[in-house]
Design a protein that fits this description.
The chain is an alpha/beta fold. The protein has six helices and eleven strands.
């Protein structure tokens, strides 16, 4: 049986070169590969293209990589609460391709499924459609063509995984992680709990191990809350 376990995040990302295209799972601060991001910062690689829903916050997640100027381009759907992301975008220091969230998810899914392009009505008539093929179908609506997204490395974070790479995501941490796992030439998974084959319920597996090349058990997850909303008692 194939064992895909590596010693830790530094070994998992050791062959990622400058200029690589990375997919990084997560949504806000939920389900992000914290250990691998820290390893990328230690490694100090530059000129990365990062595909992610957003870039975390200033002092956490991909936001840390923006501070160290390791990211050349972001393909994402949301600037959000990251002031440094916003500053680099507005100053022109960072190349940014802002994509509607559903379109971003579908472009990643298409990359994993081997579908080079698809048509969507989202963004028609806006600057998002500039330079893209448009077409009208039988329902009378106009659609724009969007192309797949793929990556040199997809880096995801799961709740549980086994040594053959099968993954289970928990709650909203499922977000972009499963589709990204299918769209990387090499997929790296960090998990909160690593178990032996047969310990996961086959009916609960979200990502089959065939999509995963490297896996390790992470540690020291912070479980941050991005926005805390309370009411006065």
């Amino acid at each position: 049986m194939i064992n895909k376990v590596v010693a830790g995040p530094d070994e998992a990302i050791k062959d990622i070169p400058n200029g690589a295209t990375l997919m990084l799972g997560g949504f806000g601060l939920c389900g992000i590969p914290e250990n691998c991001i820290a390893a990328l910062i230690r490694k100090g690689i530059k000129d990365l293209t990062c595909i992610s829903n957003n870039a975390g916050v200033d002092d956490f997640g991909i936001g840390l990589m923006l501070k160290t100027r390791q990211v050349k381009k972001m393909i994402s759907s949301y600037v959000g609460e990251n002031a440094e992301f916003e500053r680099q975008l507005l100053s022109g220091e960072l190349e940014v391709d802002l994509v509607p969230q559903g379109t971003l998810a579908e472009r990643i899914r298409a990359g994993g499924a081997g579908i080079p392009a698809f048509f969507t009505p989202t963004g028609y008539g806006t600057e998002i459609a500039e330079g893209k093929e448009t077409r009208q179908f039988g329902d009378g609506k106009w659609y724009i063509m969007e192309q797949w997204l793929k990556a040199d490395f997809a880096i995801v974070k799961a709740w549980r995984g086994d040594t053959t790479g099968n993954l289970v995501f928990r709650g909203t941490a499922r977000n972009f992680n499963p589709m990204m796992a299918t769209a990387g030439k090499i997929t790296i998974a960090e998990v909160e709990e690593l178990v032996e084959p047969g310990e996961l319920d086959p009916d609960q597996i979200h990502t089959p191990g065939i999509f995963v090349q490297r896996i390790f058990q992470g540690k020291d997850y912070e479980k941050r809350i991005e926005q805390r909303t309370t009411r006065k008692s």
